[in-house]
Write a structure and sequence with these properties.
About 65% of the residues lie in helices and about 0% in strands. With about 300 residues, it is mainly alpha-helical. Helix 13 packs antiparallel against helix 15.
């Protein structure tokens, strides 16, 4: 045996702080071949086996499979290359785990039904191309296709979610919920109506102006009243509401049989749909935008005021 110090499988296990079963497994796999055999045929290992076993265990702890480890040890594959391959594989696994976590968190928070859970799981698994197609289908169905007007094209751009390459958990959860929301037929109808109403007072060939945006008019006109604590059903609200009606008059459909007051009420009720505000909030999370300003206080004040019978 040329004066070498050789270890039995049990001695090697004690030296390495491992188990006989583990060493036998690696040896049978070809990762830890014996240096010699005893007269009785038992495997014997030299000091190189200790270093080799330490490397195998390290690579296994890092998640490399046995085939990759064998190639590294046999120098068929450079260790940095093997590490890069495994890192890429881990990236995929991490993405899958984060998607699963996003779905499970959404299910837990919302008390989702099995049907909703299945839909969320399917939406979470979409590829980037599939995600873009889902969003494109939603926006085409609600706002318009490639030949739409510049104003509608701008609305489309402002409503498009762009999930980053490495989204955090909050962005993944927001994506799953937003994607599910886009599949709601009633929400699609709501968005289609809002988009149509948004462009109703817009003159083709001219950029949209602030006075053509009912939401902006209501916000600017009503915010001071809300801040001042004026009750929407009180007489003090009457002149505020009268000014609002005047400022919004050119945006209402004069061919509609409904009275202007009723028209404005119907439009503001659609704008105050919680699904629309939720879409805007989710969109901001996905795209990394600041949280949108909530119009709910001014919209609720205005709808309450409009529902109050007019005083003569």
């Amino acid at each position: 045996m040329n004066g070498r110090t050789l270890y039995s499988i049990g001695e090697l296990a004690r030296q390495a702080g491992s188990t006989v079963k583990t060493i036998r497994f690696y040896s049978d796999s070809g990762l830890l071949p014996p240096a010699d055999r005893s007269p009785a045929g038992y495997r014997l290992y030299d000091h190189h086996a200790l270093a080799r076993l330490d490397l195998v265990r390290t690579l296994r702890d890092l998640g490399l499979d046995l085939a990759a480890i064998r190639k590294v040890i046999d120098r068929e594959l450079a260790l940095p290359e093997a590490a890069a391959i495994h890192a890429d594989a881990l990236d995929v696994q991490i993405r899958i785990l984060r998607l699963r976590r996003a779905v499970l968190t959404a299910v837990a928070n919302r008390g989702a039904t099995p049907e909703e859970t299945h839909l969320m799981h399917q939406l979470a698994k979409l590829s980037e191309a599939e995600r873009r197609q889902l969003v494109a289908d939603f926006l085409d169905a609600t706002i318009g296709g490639p030949g739409t007007s510049p104003m509608l094209a701008g609305i489309t751009h402002s409503m498009t979610p762009e999930l980053p390459d490495n989204p955090d958990t909050e962005q993944l959860q927001a994506w799953v919920e937003l994607a599910e929301l886009t599949q709601d037929p009633d929400f699609r109808t709501l968005v289609r109506d809002l988009a149509h109403e948004q462009t109703a007072g817009h003159t083709p060939g001219h950029p949209p102006a602030l006075h053509n945006d009912i939401a902006a008019i209501v916000r600017d006109q009503i915010t001071p009243a809300v801040a001042a604590g004026i009750e929407p059903a009180s007489p003090h609200a009457d002149p505020i509401l009268a000014t609002l009606m005047t400022r919004c008059a050119h945006l209402l459909d004069h061919s509609d049989d409904a009275a202007p007051r009723e028209q404005l009420l119907n439009r503001l009720e659609r704008m105050n749909d919680p699904r629309w505000e939720r879409y805007s909030a989710l969109l901001a999370v996905i795209n990394g935008w600041p949280p949108p300003e909530s119009l709910r206080p001014v919209l609720e004040w205005t709808t309450h005021a409009l529902q109050t019978p007019a005083r003569s």
